[in-house]
């Protein structure tokens, strides 16, 4: 049985402008450049260059007073303490509709003008329409294309795989061995190791290349690949990697002792049981010290010298530039973060031509609708860029004020406990907005480049009753470990007692967590001769 029900529902939706602002706010400088280039390509109404003074188009568009106020003063919306994530835009909820461009056929006869069509078309009907007609910008809004887009990174001059394939071509192997060599090189991972079983690689050759090979044959070609540069490439484990590198060194007594240590006492070496190694190999103190020193200088990840398969090396591009001069901080955005964009004057001229036209037919209406969509899209994009700059500067300025002592001296122990909520309250914005700013952004200071996340840390209680930053505790912990006797490194229990003696109320498990975050091994593995 069918029935009709009425239901009242209250929901909130993000407008296209807000979605666009969110997307632009969370991307770093490198991706912002690509995003602007993409928008310039898809929107002919958007141009690079300084904005021109207001013209007749602005007068025609004066009906939307609220939107124009936001354009003239992008800071006005941000200054409203009641706003959260949506503070930078009008709160009008608009449904997103797909863009429809009506085709215009040259040979189509014009329909006879009715009474409604004969009336003059008011341009403000298009310019001040509350509905967003055909607003759908490429790359905006949630979607797989936006989330899956790669970060623009600097290309490398050549990959490790290309380098190895080039060396394979000069190795003098026959065609069959070359095929096996290419399969082996394709099995090398990012660290430079071949961790797959040779029998599995032989099976791959049989299925993919229709080439029946034996495991000894594959191993013979592997030994050739292991002679390629960089040294240690193609090893199946760390022990083999280190031995391959030592084999290329001049055979001296220290090299021979290092090879004996890796071949005969590798397990003791990984656990740093040096006394057992001395007793087993009958080495003097200076001999084992020199041999261990040589091993420690070897490269455990030979593939790290170049990315496999045409990868990319990422360079950090700071979003902010901070300088300190005569007690004053000068905070600016990276110039790449402040592009000069404007609405195309040619498109505004189209509106003037339409307004002065004596005959306004259906084709002209369609053209004006298309132009209106592109102009709205350009204006919203420019406004989103301005609001992004303003939000970034306000957030970073609050961080600088909060961590002033650190930015003056560069001393990690001066960092104060700071969480996202502290900055959100300072600038009267939502925590999610601050999180988007802090994500993947970096600032260049006189002491180096720091990610914004570096300045956020939890508090640790002290004997004085004040909270200390976890960064400060990590800094003190690192200092203690660096100053310890390497023959008798400090355990986590002793480190806990030393920190408690300095007034930091911290548990042993927290010491172990901070030590691991600092990439410092346990006491047994820090032992040196």
**Counted beta strands:** 10
Strand sequence of the main sheet, in spatial order? 5-4-7-8
Oligomer: single chain
Alpha-carbon Rg, integer: 33 Å
Uncertain segments of ≥5 residues (pLDDT<50)?
54-157, 306-311
How many H/I helical runs? 25
Portion in beta strands: 5-15%
Task: State the shape.
Answer: extended
Textual characterization of the structure:
- Residues 369-527 form the RNA polymerase sigma factor 54 DNA-binding domain.
- Residues 38-157 are annotated as: Disordered.
- Residues 47-76, 116-132 have a biased composition (Acidic residues).
- The chain has 529 residues and is α+β, with helices and mostly antiparallel strands.
- 48% of the residues lie in helices and 7% in strands.
- The protein has 25 helices and ten strands.
- The chain has helices at 16-26, 29-42, 56-60, 65-72, 75-78, 115-118, 124-127, 144-147, 160-169, 175-186, 198-208, 215-225, 238-247, 253-264, 266-270, 274-281, 285-296, 345-356, 362-402, 404-409, 420-427, 431-438, 470-482, 492-501, 508-517; strands spanning 46-48, 154-155, 312-313, 320-325, 328-333, 341-343, 442-445, 448-451, 459-461, 467-469.
- It has a four-stranded mixed sheet, covered by helices on one side. Strands 1-6 form a two-stranded antiparallel ribbon. The chain has a two-stranded antiparallel sheet with strand order 2-3.
- β9 (459-461) and β10 (467-469) form a beta hairpin.
- α10 (175-186) packs across α11 (198-208), α13 packs antiparallel against α14 and α24 (492-501) packs across α25 (508-517).
